[in-house]
């Protein structure tokens, strides 16, 4: 704050080039995808304050992947500007985490006194691991810090979009890229496809050293010591294919096709993954030629994910609008989930036990189908494609892949794909051999 002679003051900011570019953007979705400690989080409160001044009194939101990260990063930066520097109001940590503008802060922000007709001006704080917690208000703008982390789930992105829809509220997403998940599929990829001139998306990318406080020596030391993919993601802020990616052969240009109406005579296959809150399905068809002969090319054309429904309700939704002459062949569930299979069979959909129970064998069969071009995906399968791009082995401190699957419990679509894949992509005997 630069003080005037009459005791008033003026906030003077000194943004670096990357922050200035974000500040100049007028797009609805502004993303700073940049290197670690490059000034992403410190810029967020300034952007939000400008949006509050522009949009007027009402509700705004700040979201981090977890409350732990919120307490460590976004909240201290927010309070430093709003509470300490500008003295706009008070932060309350309980029962709801929120910042409430005082009458003096309101007048300082909007240039007039608060009236009885004005709604309170508040900023709420939420975390993205619980999408339902973000559904409680209608927001005029939002700042989402570290929005590229896995804990910042797709459901939370969708919930926040719904909460901003009424006002067409703008979003600022600040993050280092961590994988090729929702941030990549929903923002980076469309922005690239639009020639980096998307009507609603602006991505500002810069390396760590653009922050004048970040030592160039630290940047060069990281370049010398880290695997290239890790350095590019964490110090240049560029999404890359990380080590340990299980379906590393997947290529959007080769394996994703535009949706089309599937002829009703083409056969249908479904893989299902069961769960009380996470029942998933992937529907696959096989292309037939003009004479009705099998071509060996399979297309995943539909995905399904829902919870808290009866088996009959799940079946109705999985089959909805899927007009076909074929009843379909269905495989699903782990070896121990016989009761789930019986429930679905009793409700009208026969579900067989997968031909192979070993996870790694199922993965290899799906991998081979993707790599050889036998399996393609409709572009509309956003959740399945996101999971394919992020399905990974854990890595050690050197960035080397280890055994196992990281966060295995969240990949319901890929479990469903693996179950049907053990049948569709098995090695078959030559003609005439039984």
Binned, the helix content reads 25-40%
Strand content: 15-25%
How many distinct helices? 14
CA-based shape: globular
The SSE string, one letter per element, is EEHEHEHEEHEEHEHEHHHEEEEHEHHEHH
Low-confidence runs of at least 5 consecutive residues: 429-434
Number of E-state strands: 16
Largest sheet: 8 strands, mixed
Q: Termini separation (Å)?
A: 83 Å
Query: What kind of oligomer do you see?
Result: single chain
Features:
434 residues, alpha/beta, eight-stranded mixed β-sheet, six-stranded mixed β-sheet, globular
Structure description:
The chain has 434 residues and is α/β, with parallel strands linked by helices. The chain is built from 14 helices and 16 strands. The strands form 3 sheets. The chain has an 8-stranded mixed sheet, with helices on both faces. Strands 11-16-14-13-12-15 form a 6-stranded mixed sheet. A two-stranded antiparallel ribbon has the order 1-2. Strand 5 (89-92) and strand 6 (98-101) form a beta hairpin. 39% of the residues are buried.
Task: Break the fold down into its secondary structure elements and pairings.
Elements: E1 2-3, E2 9-10, H1 17-24, E3 29-34, H2 40-55, E4 59-64, H3 67-85, E5 89-92, E6 98-101, H4 103-110, E7 122-127, E8 141-145, H5 154-165, E9 170-175, H6 182-193, E10 201-206, H7 216-225, H8 228-235, H9 252-255, E11 256-257, E12 268-273, E13 279-288, E14 294-306, H10 311-319, E15 329-332, H11 338-346, H12 359-371, E16 375-378, H13 382-390, H14 412-424
Parallel strand pairs: 3-9, 3-10, 4-7, 4-8, 8-9, 11-16, 12-15, 14-16
Antiparallel strand pairs: 1-2, 5-6, 6-7, 12-13, 13-14
Helix pairs in contact: 2-3, 12-14
């Amino acid at each position: 704050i630069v003080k005037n002679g009459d005791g008033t003051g003026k906030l003077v900011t000194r943004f670096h080039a990357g922050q200035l570019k974000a500040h100049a953007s007028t797009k609805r979705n502004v993303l700073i995808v940049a290197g670690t400690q490059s000034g992403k989080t410190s810029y967020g409160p300034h952007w939000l304050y400008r949006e509050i001044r522009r949009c007027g009194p009402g509700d705004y939101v700040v979201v981090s992947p977890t409350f732990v990260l919120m307490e460590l990063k976004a909240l201290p930066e927010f309070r430093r500007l709003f509470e300490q520097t500008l003295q706009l109001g008070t932060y309350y940590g309980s029962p709801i985490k929120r910042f409430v503008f005082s009458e003096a802060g309101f007048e300082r922000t909007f240039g007039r006194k608060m009236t009885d007709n004005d709604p309170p001006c508040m900023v709420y704080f939420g975390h993205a691991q619980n999408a339902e917690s973000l559904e409680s208000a209608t927001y005029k703008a939002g700042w989402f810090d570290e929005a590229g982390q896995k804990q910042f789930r797709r459901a939370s992105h969708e919930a926040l979009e719904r909460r901003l829809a009424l006002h067409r509220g703008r979003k600022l997403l600040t993050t280092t890229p961590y994988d090729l998940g929702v941030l990549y599929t929903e923002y980076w990829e469309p922005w690239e496809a639009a020639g980096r001139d998307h009507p609603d998306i602006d991505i500002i990318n810069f390396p760590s050293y653009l922050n004048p406080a970040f030592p160039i020596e630290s940047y060069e030391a990281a370049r010398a010591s880290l695997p290239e993919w890790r350095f590019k993601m964490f110090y240049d802020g560029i999404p890359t294919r990380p080590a340990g990616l299980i379906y590393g052969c997947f290529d959007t240009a080769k394996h994703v096709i535009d949706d089309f109406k599937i002829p009703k005579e083409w056969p249908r296959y479904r893989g299902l993954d069961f769960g009380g809150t996470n029942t998933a399905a992937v529907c696959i068809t096989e292309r037939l030629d003009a004479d009705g002969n099998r071509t060996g090319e399979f297309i995943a054309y539909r995905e399904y994910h829902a919870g808290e429904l009866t088996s009959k309700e799940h079946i109705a939704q999985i089959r909805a609008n899927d007009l076909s002459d074929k009843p379909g062949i269905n495989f699903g569930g782990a070896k121990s989930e016989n009761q789930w299979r019986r429930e679905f069979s009793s409700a009208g959909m026969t579900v067989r036990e997968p031909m192979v129970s070993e996870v790694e064998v199922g993965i290899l069969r799906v991998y081979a189908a993707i790599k050889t071009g036998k399996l393609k995906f409709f572009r509309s399968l956003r959740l399945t494609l996101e999971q394919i791009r992020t399905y990974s082995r854990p890595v050690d401190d050197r960035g080397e892949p280890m055994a196992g699957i990281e966060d295995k419990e969240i990949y319901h679509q890929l479990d469903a794909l693996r179950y049907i894949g053990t049948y569709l992509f098995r090695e078959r005997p030559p003609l005439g051999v039984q």
